[in-house]
Amino acid sequence: MADNATVLSIENVHFGYKQAGVMVPILSGASFAVAAGECAALQGASGTGKSTALALAGLLVSPQQGRIVLDGEDTTAWSENTRATWRRDKLGFIFQQHHLLDDFTVRENCALPLLWQGKDAAPVDALLDSMGLSGRANAYPPQLSGGEQQRAAIARALIHRPRLLLADEPTGNLDPENAAIVLKLLLDAARKQGCAVLLVTHDPQIAAAADKRFVMSERSVILK
Ligand SMILES: Nc1ncnc2c1ncn2[C@@H]1O[C@H](COP(=O)(O)OP(=O)(O)OP(=O)(O)O)[C@@H](O)[C@H]1O
Ligand SMILES: [Mg+2]
């Protein structure tokens, strides 16, 4: 697929959670898109549905109305199996808390996405090196600093060269210096690797560094 092709397109999506038998709307007609090579920021107050939007984009939940289109394909009718395969092969996900597996080394954590695809883990060391983590490859996540943990989580999310990288407040627990490092790695994923990056952040400075900025508003998403 050529660069600047739309990777993620959320089209008039309606989504709510059922609570005590009543549907509580979270998104009511949200539309936005992210292209290959582009880093988009998603901002909004707590509880407005940013993590929900990432869960929809990552095919973890399905909209009640509207479409999620990935690389030009409407995912509406995809089976759970097809959705899981897309996630395994095309998606990288980064969380506010790193969610690395404590019983595996940094190298093993980063190798997992390749092993799930039946691929060789050889590229892991070069990626860890490029992220300044070569000296920590044999360490276990609890032995790392917060910044190192988040860089290892980014390496794990990028090792299989995903089409789409979703990041939910990846700098939320970091000091400004480490937040800047993480931001640069995410921008590089878009610039150098051609990933479509969707980055949830509360931080206006981080959002300003993105190529475009979406804001959750009135249960929808507007381009700012
Ligand atoms: N599994 C669930 N069941 C019911 N309601 C939920 C569920 N998950 C989230 N919600 C509700 O949906 C709304 C949106 O939640 P979401 O986590 O997407 O917000 P957010 O914008 O990511 O907030 P934050 O900035 O605090 O992370 C909230 O009102 C939340 O309480
Ligand atoms: Mg959230």
Q: Would you give an account of this structure?
A:
This protein is of the alpha/beta class and 224 residues long. The protein has a domain at 6-94 and 159-223: 3-Layer(aba) Sandwich (Rossmann fold), CATH 3.40.50.300. It is built from 7 helices and 10 strands. It has helices at residues 50-57, 80-90, 106-116, 124-130, 146-158, 176-191, 204-209, and strands at 6-19, 22-35, 39-43, 65-70, 73-74, 91-94, 164-168, 196-200, 212-217, 220-223. It has a 6-stranded mixed β-sheet with strand order 6-7-8-3-9-10, with helices on both faces. It has a 4-stranded antiparallel β-sheet with strand order 2-1-4-5, with helices on one face. Strand 4 (65-70) and strand 5 form a beta hairpin. Helix 3 (106-116) runs parallel beside helix 5 (146-158). The site of adenosine-5'-triphosphate (ATP) has 11 residues, from strand 1 and helix 1.
CATH class of the domain at 6-94 and 159-223: Alpha Beta
Estimated radius of gyration: 17 Å
Structural class by sheet pairing and helices: alpha/beta
Run of helices and strands: EEEHEEHEHHHEHEHEE
Beta-strand percent range: 25-35%
- For the terminal residues, how far apart are their CA atoms? 28 Å
Q: How much is the average pLDDT?
A: 95
Number of helices: 7
Number of strands: 10
Strand order of the largest sheet: 6-7-8-3-9-10
* Outline: globular
> Strand count, sense and closure of the main sheet?
6 strands, mixed
The fold-level CATH name of the domain at 6-94 and 159-223 is: Rossmann fold
CATH homologous superfamily title of the domain at 6-94 and 159-223: P-loop containing nucleotide triphosphate hydrolases
The appropriate CATH architecture of the domain at 6-94 and 159-223 is: 3-Layer(aba) Sandwich
Uncertain runs are none
